[in-house]
Amino acid sequence: MSRFPHDFIWGTATAAHQIEGGNVNSDFWLAENVPETIFREPSGDACDSYHRYPEDIALAAELGFNTHRFGIEWARIEPEPGVFSRAALDHYLRVLECCHAHGLAPMVSLNHWTVPRWFAARGGFEMADSPDLFARFAEQVSRHLGDGMAFVTTFNEANIQRVIGSTFHNPKAAPGLAAMKQACARACGSDRFSMVLFATAEEIEAQLVEAHYRAAQALRAGPGTFQLGVTISMAEVEGVGEGNQAEAFENDLYGPWLDVAKTADFVGVQTYTRYRIGPEGRLRLPADAMRTDMGYEYRPEALEATVRFAARRIGRPIIVTEHGIAAKDDTRRVALIDTALEGLQRCLDDGIDLRGYVHWSLLDNFEWVLGYGMRFGLIEVDRTSFARTPKPSARHLGQIARSSRANTPSSIKG
Ligand code: IFM
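# 5-hydroxymethyl-3,4-dihydroxypiperidine complex -> structure
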């Protein structure tokens, strides 16, 4: 495993809402708690990382990583429109300082799907002025936190509406979703409630693209020398049979985001599986296919395929900003990591500008509508005591990171 460059980025990823706990002012908190919710369970205290982040960061460093990806929560930073919480910004400043103190380069997600409740209730990113509001938030982040960040990404899986649209907007699921959104709107005294994860690309994508550019501008105008990227949910897309629709499928999956990524310092590749596409569209998985606990195909080779795709179609430096597996059986995580990293080594051997690998996730956490049943973590979290217990996969990946690394990346400050 020592053929990785000595300054390769080795990290683990988290997201604010999935680990912090008590994110009461966010749109998701409300959606999880209305009687009409489609969530299996509410996020509640999550991993209590809002308070336990020093332990998380120390553990990541001790395991051997040199980068820590985490989200900052807009709902905490701007609890009311135009009202910015100094205390919340200071909290994230302490998180950044903690990363530096442990030799971890902070990789900050500006948006990992959650937004303030007030923003959702005014129409979220469906509104024409939403890019202004997102840029105003980015400007505050830049001013207070810009100096401490090594990497920043605007939207997490910017194309997510295209990826899961069919899951939530199909005729079977749609009534439940509509009822939940109506209940949230009612609770806010509004006639609308728009969430990033549950909107369609038609409704919000144009504003998201604009918001990305406006936020990037605000961030670049402020302090700091961080690298700025956008992350994209990517899957290996395999065409099957003559006349297959793989190319059309791919175009539809990524929409404008490949072009957007061409303007960023790096593209964040996030990969979990493969889609096989025939002449009539996506093929069903055969009954005997190997699956992850999420139900989709277990396909470690998909990461190499998507990194090669990103290199070919985007041509910017690449960081794998998420990759992992929902698996109660941790030996599957070790196997996934080993096979995927072999593929990444082949990419490097072929001269692809791949800068790093950030594993999803540091901790077992709140997997959105599926709740806490899905175990993506390198570290187990006791749901009552919040005790953290590294799994063998954590030591395994940490050891790979440590042994391949003589120096920390040049972008680490402090
Ligand atoms: O948990 C999610 C994360 O929030 C975004 N990418 C995929 C992960 C696993 O499903």
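# post-check
The first strand starts at residue 9 and ends at 13.
The chain has a mean pLDDT of 96.
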